[in-house]
Amino acid sequence: MEDNYWSTGQPGPAGPCSEIYYDRGPAYGKDGGPAVDDVRFIEIWNLVFMQFQRGEGNGKGDFEILGELPKKNIDTGLGLERLALILQGVENFYETDQVRPVLDAAAALSGKEYTSAESPEDPHHTDDVRLRVVADHVRSALMLIADGVTPSNEGRGYVLRRLIRRAVRSMRLLGVEKACLPDLLPASRDAMMGVYPQVSTDFDRISRIAYAEEKAFLRTIASGTARLEEAVADSKSAGKPLSGQDAFALHDTFGFPIDLTLEMAAEAGLAVDEQGFRSLMQEQRQRARADAKGKKSGHADLSVFNELLAQGPTVFTGYTELDGESPLRAILRDGVRTSSAAAGDAVELVLAETPFYAEAGGQAADTGLITGDGFVVEVLDVQRPVKGLSVHQAIVREGEFGADALVRTAVDRERRHAAEQAHTGTHIVHAALHQILGSDALQRGSFNKAGYLRFDFSWAEGLSAATRSEIEEVSNIAIRNNYSVQTRVMPLDEAKALGAMALFGENYGSEVRVVEIDGAWSRELCGGTHVTTTSEIGSLTLLGEASVGALYADP
Question: What domains sit in the chain, N to C, each tagged with a CATH number?
């Protein structure tokens, strides 16, 4: 059990195991098995005979066998690349036929010689390690992008981003300051396409994403390296670590990622106050959350809104009506409930039902009037500080009223219609992007108001003038074709089965609203308001395109 037994380390399946090693011969080390030399004796295969159920252990590797499993099996794991290096007679994984071509291309590009140096004392060792990093990371990036991953600041997208960054950074340390992926990625493609043909057939997309990521990172390095070197020099002269403030400034001003700051500082023999950096990052996030909260609730204590929500949600009637009547449920001033309001007061009003659209889904809030017996209130904004409750931010223009008033509501029709034109326009632009760029052009946000729309989407590089012109033309053809715009409410699973597009990161309920333009021409989940036919938009002009930055922030 000490030498040849496997378990998860906790109660569950367990059993004896057989490990298969290959003896690479005396040239690789001492005889005597893997316990003596694990470079000469390399494990290539492991088989676990899952036949027992183990109990709790004593923390020292000893545990009780409770009995046999009702269904036994053999868990077998072969190290494919270890077997490849043995069959191909090479020194290590980096020299196998799917990796060595990239290593050779990196060596040729940098003018460095690869020597297979294993000892840190060997003068070639540092360059060899960098060449291996490049070969491994370029191949990994190729396969990740082929599998549908795109660079981002979270999850597997962040893993891909770091792989590309580290490969590019290693090439710079080897003396190559220009873009290197146009030389290295094709070498990896050629080595991998025999087993994975998709890396060749989909190479246009793969290379576009990878090259744009490298280009953005090179700009980041160029802008931040000089500032980092100054900060490192100042810190070393003061005999102190690089401060969290300096690391944060590099991140916030130059887009310099903390992992790159840590790596470059370490190369200069300098530590970094990483905890100080994390604290400043957390403060920035808290400020951003506070600003967002202030937009929705004026920094009021949300408990008052939760109490109102407990009495029932606001009924939104604005899909079919732009005016109506409703009991007034509450008047708030500076986040505190009050019994009345008079001319000149800035107030927040909560109604039982409202046709006013609260800002959501990228669509600006409605404005208009709330009136009653002897008073007029101008609605300037509508927010949902808590889900399900619409709060009208307003100014009392005339008269006085109490919290029990019956009010009449009237949405500014022209402003609403203009916002609907913009919102339907974003759906059209989204569909046009998919037609021209493909399904990888994913929506990441939008903002729609009277006469204006902004559509945020993920794409690895700037669009050419010809592409922008084509997007505009496809959008205007859809507008001129006078497609019908229809909405349907259906179960979320049914909407997904229809192929309705959803905004990444948005939380949807079991019932969703689907907006369709000419049936399947465009089909998206959306809670906003829209025109009834595309021709109501009139025309659409793309005024500009700008990048919000390939943010290399620590997630």
Answer: 5-78 (no CATH), 86-201 (no CATH), 303-411 (2.40.30.130), 417-537 (3.30.980.10)
